[in-house]
Amino acid sequence: MAKRTADWKPGILPFTLPFLLLLALGLWSYKPASSPLSWVLTIVWSLPVVGVLVGIQGALLIRRRVRRSEVMIPPSPAEQDFLIVLVPTIGRHDTFPALERSVLSYVEHLPEFFPHLRIDVLTEEGCEAAEDIDQLAAAHPSVRIVTVPKAYQTPNGTRFKARANHYAHDLRIAQGEALDNVWVLHMDDDTGVGPDTGASLAQFINRQRRADPAHAKHMAQGILTYPRENAVNRFTWLADAVRPADDVARFRALTGLGTPAAGVHGELLVLRASIEATIGWDFGPKAIVEDAQLALTFCQRFPGRSDWFNGRCYGASPASAKDFVKQRERWAWGLVALCFNRSIPLRYRWFLSACVVTWILGPFQHIAVVLAVGFLIGDLNTSPLAQSVVILWALNFAYVIWTYWEGLRLNALASARGHRKWWEPIVVVALIPVFSVLEGLGGFKGFLRFVRREENKFVVIAKPA
Question: Under which EC number(s) is this enzyme classified (predicted)?
Fold first, then answer.
């Protein structure tokens, strides 16, 4: 995996050039319109602008942070803190190869910066790959198996991954590990680390030790990337370029400024054990996006106390387009339910809700669908109600191009070769209309499952090795 990250910063030209071209084209082709189609497009193609502005803010904050790198504490071992890496796994045979790859990466790369380290592999009693997992732990003294008993139940009846996380949370409290100097690094069973991860994470933790206790951070999120060599499907690897871009945009802006209102993802999420002990993971039987619910609860209880760090973890894209849609469907299903969760104040839910609405409306915003509707009603004028709206549209569409362009660059930097192949940027931009269909389809299917009040399911796709 590539080791260089310090010299990376979000590009300006990949956003500015598409914005200017789209703006010029939109202003040139504008024709006054007041049809039903124009009313609908004026709304739905303008909706993403809130998330876009937040994302632009996050990218600019990274550029500023790179310029002010002299204020960063040089990486050094976190000698006074204890790091627990928590890796929940369903323990199937088809997920074990990715789990093994991930655990071996923790064993190799983290001890240099964390002399006090334990890796907890969190499994369910009787899982089918239990023997292989036991052998993996036996070969590495820093690895411990934590087995969730089948009979274990949380007070609120939480299920799936959140139930397992809550069991580990209960166990840490019982063993006296819910302390300020104990940090829990949450990872997925297909997501590893590299040489840069430990350095950046230790840099963050050491910075909190030197900070004023009244302002020290309790949570932080890094960047999830997808190295090319971890991909078994080049198409889904290109489609997942959008995910690291989101980490350096929306997540950088919100989580990095102290309030993770956009949620967090379950990889490379570090949390003080003492703080996690006050929140827990017992969110009830309907929780299937436990990481996002944890983030919104954190917003309520510890405003201003989260951060972002410029470290990467290394995951793998879904093995097929079918798995890609299935993954997005589960996320959307859980996020829609979270947006309607009245136990969380609206002031913390509104931004996530706006982003989710934009997502689930994806199939109806697609240019092919719009043109098909226009053809059927005999009106192919897709101009907005007012010419000034063209500025918002150009902003939104340019941002989409930027996310795939820069996300691909991040994934390529995280790969062994450390750079993009000449054709990849061209192909990833050309395939955006196809990727948007898959993203929108997954989002809309998740919404339908919520509307139909189907039984919650935590679908775990096969994990590439």
Answer: 2.4.-.-
User: 237 with 411: CB under 8 angstroms?
Assistant: yes
pLDDT value for 417: 86
Predicted confidence at residue 67, as pLDDT, reads 54
Tell me how far the alpha carbon of residue 341 is from its chain's centroid. 21
Instruction: Quickly tell me which residue has 């006296």 as its tokens.
Output: 176
* Tens-place pLDDT, residues 388-440: 999 999 999 999 999 999 999 999 999 998 899 999 999 999 999 999 999 99
Question: Which tokens sit at 379?
Answer: 């009106």
The residue behind tokens 């998740």 is 446
Closest by alpha carbon to 460, among 85, 87, 92, 86? 92
Q: How far apart are CA 333 and CA 449, in angstroms?
A: 6
Q: What percent of the chain has pLDDT over 70?
A: 95
Q: Which residues contact 234 (CB under 8 A, 6 or more apart)?
A: none
Of 181, 186, 137, which Cα lies nearest the Cα of 166?
186
Q: Are 428 and 241 in contact (CB under 8 A)?
A: yes
Q: Decide if pLDDT at 4 tops 70.
A: no
> Distance (Å, rounded) from C-alpha 316 to C-alpha 465?
8
Q: How far is CA 287 from CA 36, 172, 185, 194, 392, in A?
A: 38, 22, 21, 31, 35
Q: Is the pLDDT of residue 461 over 80?
A: no
Question: How crowded is the C-beta side of 397, counted as CA atoms within 13 Å?
Answer: 21
User: Tens digits of per-residue pLDDT, 41-97?
Assistant: 999 999 999 999 999 999 999 988 755 544 455 689 999 999 999 999 999 999 999
Q: Any idea what DSSP says for residue 164?
A: H
Residue 64 vs residues 67, 249, 457: alpha-carbon distances, Å: 5, 13, 42
- For residues 186 and 165, give the distance between their C-alpha atoms in angstroms, rounded to a whole number: 9
Enter the CATH code of domain 75-319: 3.90.550.10
Q: What is the pTM of this model?
A: 0.94
Helix (H, G, I), strand (E, B) or coil at 308: strand
CA distance 119 to 189: 12
Domain boundaries, given as residue ranges, for the chain = 13-67+351-451, 75-319
β-bridge pairing 117-124 and 219-225: unpaired
The pLDDT of residue 2: 44
Q: Which long-range contacts (CB under 8 A, 24 or more apart) does 378-384 make?
A: 379/35, 379/37, 381/31, 381/33, 381/35, 381/37, 381/38, 382/37, 382/38, 382/41, 383/29, 383/30, 383/31, 383/32, 383/33, 383/38, 384/33, 384/38, 384/41, 384/42, 384/45, 384/46
